[in-house]
Amino acid sequence: MKDKHERIPVAEVEATPGLSRRRFLAAGSMVALGVGALSATGLEASAREALAREFTLLGAEAGNTLLVLARDIFPHDHIEDRYYRQALAPLEAQAADDAELRQLLAEGTAALDELARARFLRPYAAIERESDRLVLLYLIEHGAFFLRLKGHLVTGFYDNKEVWPLFGYEGSSWEQGGYLNRGFNDIDWLEQDA
């Protein structure tokens, strides 16, 4: 019997029945192809659905609509849905104490979903093409629901300090003496080779 720390020659490993290096690599590539075949939108949708379930007051369906709507109002493809959820959380908390706001959000998401079903035969959040969803937003952009949500998101989303680095914003500078001596004229991206 061999010592467990003794090295086994490569030829002996390859001769053992079962999983060879070739089979391992072939199986590994098949697994990689299988994982690659999972659509990014499918994974994104399941993550969004998990976040939507966090909308305890409004419910998951309305939460899903609000998440997609928030992303469509302020679209940033490189920003995760969780930041949009963070921006919407105070609005839902406020709706818990404000029956009028709660009704506005509930009726607004229901009306948007109804409009989407009438035009695209599916709820708003299930419409895959952003351009199709934007058609619906143009129809409601002057309504109280859209304006309230947009107004809240301007500060709720862009005042989130966790989002700032994702945009390259370093935050407030006045506490450190302003930007003048802290990178105001750092424009190395504009420099060209002469």
UniProtKB/TrEMBL annotation:
The cross-references to PROSITE patterns, in alphabetical order and at most eight, read:
TAT (PS51318)
Protein name from the UniProt record: Twin-arginine translocation pathway signal
> Which species does this protein come from?
Zobellella denitrificans
